[in-house]
Prior knowledge:
Distance between the termini: 40 Å
Radius of gyration: 14 Å
Bound molecules: tetrahydrodeoxyuridine
Structural class: alpha+beta
Helix content: 25-40%
Number of strands: 5
Strand content: 15-25%
Largest sheet: 5 strands, mixed
Strand order of the largest sheet: 2-1-3-4-5
Amino acid sequence: MTDRELVERAFAMHKFSYVPYSRFPVGAALLCADGTVFTGCNVENAAYGSTICAERTALLKAISEGHREDWQTIAIAGQGEDYCWPCGACRQMLYEFAPNLRVLAARGDGQFQCVPLRELLPYGFGPASLQG
Ligand code: THU
């Protein structure tokens, strides 16, 4: 799967986004080493803080389907003029399982940038940080 195809999988998730409050649909597509792709969309809530981002939807789907250690790339697609960079909470959640993940951030016109998660979350706190 090419980066462009993964970004398109992320854009295709906009139709499932539940965004009555922000009106800002986000889609995500997480590619595993064996070619499996887990997709996600953002799901908002009247209690705003309970909202789940598209990336974490995809992440939870992967973990709960037994794909925990083989993540290669995640694409994140928004509809804004700026690239849809993952929020801090999503960076942290992704870092737990895949500190070497590639992140593709796409904007509304379809353009995207590729940045390593380690650059988006330098000096990250992960499982190894808890070793005594
Ligand atoms: N959102 C995501 O799903 N992923 C991001 O990377 C940034 C923000 C969602 C959360 C909320 O539903 C909407 O975008 C506006 O913040």
